[in-house]
Amino acid sequence: MSSETEPVAWLRAQITARLDVARKATPGPWEFEHDDEVFTVHDGEHGDLVGSTVAFTRHWADVNGEHIALNDPDDVIARCEAELAILDLHYILHRDDTNELYGEFSVTPHPGANRSDFGCVTCHYRGMGGVWGKGYCLTVSILAKGYRHRLGYAEAWPVKPG
Is the pTM of this model over 0.85? Predict the structure, then answer.
């Protein structure tokens, strides 16, 4: 979406990058097996070895192996697609927006303390194509928190729940 602001574009880029990596990975479902010294993650469909690492302790192998198996590419793809759908539903409309989907919408100044020249078309909709200028909605801000450990989060994401 060409009119997305930097923080929303940053979030979409993080989700899309994760999705692209998952699509290139060995398909799942992955299954976890362990023994006393080594853990392996296998492609559940073909039984192909996905990875093998010598574990420092059995507990390390149990915890990390299960985590890896629960984050197989199919699960990551599904989560990324859901996140992108949520982001699409919570489009942030700006006064000078050029998105054709919202051509008849307008941003109305919010009378409260949280004033902005943009707002979420879902959470800040006031009726008749008007969107309250309340800033980023809580839904999009929470979605971004899932990527808070990625480079650019602190600088690019002004959380303004409205």
Answer: no
